[in-house]
Design a protein that fits this description.
By secondary structure, the protein is an all-alpha fold. Helices cover 72% and strands 0% of the residues. It has a domain of 75 residues.
Length: 246
């Protein structure tokens, strides 16, 4: 059974878990895809200008988000429980490599442990790499006001596809370095969690500005729930910082 410990190590792991759930790239990816669909479909207008379709569009977006995040958190919970039932029960609490993690699955999966683990890693990579690389490409290209969009041909968005390709190649290059992949995953999740807090603050400020949102200013319980999540994330980060220096 997990136990709560208010120390730096526990809070750092909590920030890592939050960093994989409330991750900055998710904000970029979902908003970029919504904008992409609106740009492709000539019958669609930005909701700020076409409030009449707002209710229907928000219902679709809400359903998309709830289902997506629901599955995401269910998978994360399954990973945590499976890890506890295999690695932790065998006394493996400091995994240094993927091979070591696969070894711990042998009591459960037998000779097929390595194959199952490899298929899981490949499946995760095929799912995650396009989203992660795509998010960085959207963020960089939109920041410089370059043409963006996976619906555009490479010649129509050279800079966007260049960032996309470089991001993918950098990810592949990490496999040929001495970097510990498990630690790289862990600390990248921590970094995502740290970066999420200021992004969330900026979002919560923007959603209350009529100049940005028009008539769709966020109000009520959703607004305060957003701030509650932001404050919780910020307190975790402050706890990590304090734990490092105390």
């Amino acid at each position: 059974m997990p136990s709560i410990s208010w120390n730096g190590a526990f809070l750092t792991t909590l920030v890592a878990i939050l960093g994989t759930t409330i991750s900055p790239y998710l904000f970029v990816w979902q908003s970029a895809q919504e904008a992409e669909e609106q740009r492709i479909d000539k019958n669609k207008k930005p909701l700020k200008r076409d409030v009449a379709n707002g209710l229907e569009e928000f219902q679709r977006i809400r359903l998309d988000t709830v289902i997506g995040m629901g599955f995401s958190n269910l998978i994360a919970l399954c990973i945590i429980i499976t890890t506890a039932a295999t690695l932790h029960s065998e006394g493996v609490t400091d995994v240094q490599s993927s091979a070591q993690a696969a070894e711990a699955l042998k009591p459960l999966a037998g000779p097929a442990a390595e194959l199952i683990f490899a298929l899981g890693i490949i499946g995760t990579g095929l799912l995650a790499v396009p989203v992660l690389a795509g998010s960085s490409a959207y963020a960089v290209a939109e920041g410089w006001k370059w043409p963006v969009g996976l619906a555009r041909k490479p010649k129509q968005a050279v800079a966007f596809y260049t960032v996309l390709a470089i991001s993918g190649l950098l990810g592949i290059a990490l496999n040929f370095t001495a970097m510990d992949p498990i630690k790289a995953l862990y600390w990248s999740a921590v970094l995502n969690g740290v970066l999420a807090a200021p992004v969330m603050v900026a979002l919560m400020v923007l959603v209350r500005r009529p100049k940005v949102m028009g008539k769709l200013v966020v109000k009520g319980w959703l607004y305060w729930l957003g701030w509650a999540s932001t404050v919780a994330m910020a307190f975790c980060i402050i706890g990590v910082a304090v734990g490092m220096f105390v």
